[in-house]
Amino acid sequence: MTDDANDPPSERPRSKAELFFAFNRMALQGFGGVLAVAQRELVERKRWLRRDEFVEMLALAQVLPGPNVVNLALMLGDRYFGLRGAFSALAGMLAIPLLIVLMLTAAYAELSRFMVVSGALRGMGAVAAGLIIATAIKLIATLGTNRLGPPLAAAFAALTFVAIAWLRWPLIWVIAGLGSVSVAMAWVRWR
Questions:
Q1: 113 and 21 share a domain?
Q2: Containing structural domain, residue 1
Q3: Coil, strand or helix at 14
Q4: What is the DSSP code string of 81-150?
Q5: For 63-87, what is each residue's pLDDT tens digit?
């Protein structure tokens, strides 16, 4: 696979069923978050998206309401098969995991009083954080092709971290403020 931003993805889903099962498999692998699995599946394994396309779609998915990967599934399904593809990808993302979550909720109501269960859940949280960090490290190379350039993109990332983690500003205001400024700067540089 080439990293050239002008090259099209080398593959595409052959059917809506393939799209459904790909997103279903991602959802079933993604304990604590599907983002790391989605990047590996869509970019590296299936090759339905280039890395820069994945980052662009993910950026858009993050500012839309709803879970990032659900938004990503809708966009990718629509890209290849229109509205029916969007629903196929969404169904793949949600169908079996919904049943599993309902069963686990019922089990948790009965088992939550045991220390081993609460300890296991804390451990899963640490693993999920590690998966997100690993995905961020993999995708950091795309900053080189970002319209803002690596220094400015890194500055916006740092400002966002400070605003949310240290200053505890509401996410909506950070997105509205820093997001608007970064989009405007990227648009000016693009022109």
A1: yes
A2: 1-134
A3: coil
A4: HHHHHHHHHHHHHHHHHHHHHHHHHHHHHHHTTSHHHHHHHHHHHHHHHHHHHHHHHHHGGGGGG-TT-H
A5: 888 888 899 999 999 999 999 999 9
